[in-house]
Amino acid sequence: MGLLGAHVSTSGGICNAITNGEKLKCDAIQIFTKSQMRWDAKPLKDKDVAKFKEMWAVSRIKKIIVHDSYLINLGSPDQEKHRKSESAFIDEIKRAKEIGANFLVFHPGAHMGEGESKCIKRIGNTLNEILEEIDPGDVTILIETTAGQGTNVGYRFEHLRDILAILKSPGKFGICIDTCHIFASGYDIRTKNAYENVMREFDNSIGTNKIFAFHLNDAKVELGSRVDRHENIGVGKIGKDAFGFIVNDKRFSSVPMVLETPGGDEFYKKNLEILRGLIR
Ligand SMILES: [Zn+2]
Ligand SMILES: [Zn+2]
């Protein structure tokens, strides 16, 4: 089984993420270190960071994932937006390092009409530039699979493979698989056979040893719809079985698997019960 958990709120202070994760008996959590809909943010206060680390050390939480701001588009062809994205991403790395997070997850980017291959190159090159500015240290940066909504790239494993191929320090990067996103982008994981086929395809393209995190979300929409709408586990179009394949997959036994399902803590609780009930 993986390290099960959820994307928890930091409302009222970053330390509350630990409290919220503990309440849900999370073994891994994901957080935003700033408002996900804003460019700017106040720096984290030293005393909050110290308290956060102290609380984490004595909690059951083993791994912490930071998710970057939704505004960041490292593949933007618009110079101003690209510049803003690059500096915001550097700040995300800085904050993730400060709190001692294990992973920083980001959506690769959207081409805004410029075309996928240019966008993929720009994302790879930008990541190289960013790593010349800041060393992520112990934070591994994870590229998330996308649903392919709008002009987003990253909905094919090949896109992620091609980004990784450009990177000068690929060892500092990995992949986060979002179940809702891959399903929406056309990867069927509803039966054991289908799941194994998808994993084989991933393995051939990138290598399953590069999967460092999962977002466990059911999908409100059909296979291949390219629409990103998360649903609670077992009540969406993916269904419960797929999550059983993942949580029992020995390749991912120490990989964090966090929920990003709708409805808040009450639903997280229910979803985590379902996931734990699937463990053999
Ligand atoms: Zn996700
Ligand atoms: Zn999503």
CATH class: Alpha Beta
Per CATH, which architecture?
Alpha-Beta Barrel
Low-confidence stretches: none
Strand order of the largest sheet: 1-2-3-4-6-8-9-12
Number of helices: 9
Total strands: the figure is 12
Keywords:
single chain; 280 residues; alpha/beta; two-stranded antiparallel sheet; 40% helix
Structural notes for this entry:
The chain is of the alpha/beta class and 280 residues long. The protein contains nine helices and twelve strands. The strands form three sheets. It has an eight-stranded parallel beta barrel. It has a two-stranded antiparallel sheet with strand order 5-7. Strands 10-11 form a two-stranded antiparallel ribbon. Helix 4 (116-133) packs across helix 5 (157-166). The protein is globular. The model has no long low-confidence stretch (mean pLDDT 97). One zinc ion binds next to helix 6.
